[in-house]
Amino acid sequence: GLVPPAFAAGLFDSYVQFKGGVYSPSATFNLSNVNVETTFDGETQTGFSGEIAVGHYFLPTLALELGVGYFKGKGSIATTPVRPVDFNVVPIILSARALIPAGPVNPYGELGVGAYFTSFNVTDNLNSFSGNTTFGLHAGAGVNVNISPRAYLGLSERYVWANLNFGNQKIRLNDTEFAMNGFKLNGFTTSLALGLTF
What we know:
By secondary structure, the protein is an all-beta fold. Helix content is 2%, strand content 67%. The strands form two sheets. Strands 1-4-5-6-7-9-10-13 form an eight-stranded antiparallel beta barrel. The protein has a four-stranded antiparallel β-sheet with strand order 3-2-12-11, with no helix packed on it.
């Protein structure tokens, strides 16, 4: 979140922001047969992304931000018949954000870490699979535009790196069991934000 000049002067040093946008996976996922090493690639698709975050400025140009969000994606597994799949992710994210105060328009960059809680669902399969807690990294950039002394609108782009671990869980397709393997959350989230300083 970026702030009006009064905020940079120390009158407001915290903010809350509400984000909504899209998640665009950049990596396919696969299911690897533990016996014959057969792999099915998944065609991943864009899904919804949202987040609520609270931040605090420790310097006029440096803030720490804690966010809780949700994003989802869809895909398919190239079995016969093709199996549609979807996955749902709840991330808890900590970010360090550096901004360049430039009047009403404020660009920024961010780096951070996150914990990702994921479920994976396959159509026509009775099981829903929950991944172990996965820790990942993210980096991003954005710009905020002040619309009042205590409010701003923002546009941001963030890239996530996270490899899921499903432990020993297996999925049964066409009378064959497959180990959950190679599933990555790597991808972009593009968001619009409304921020309020206090």
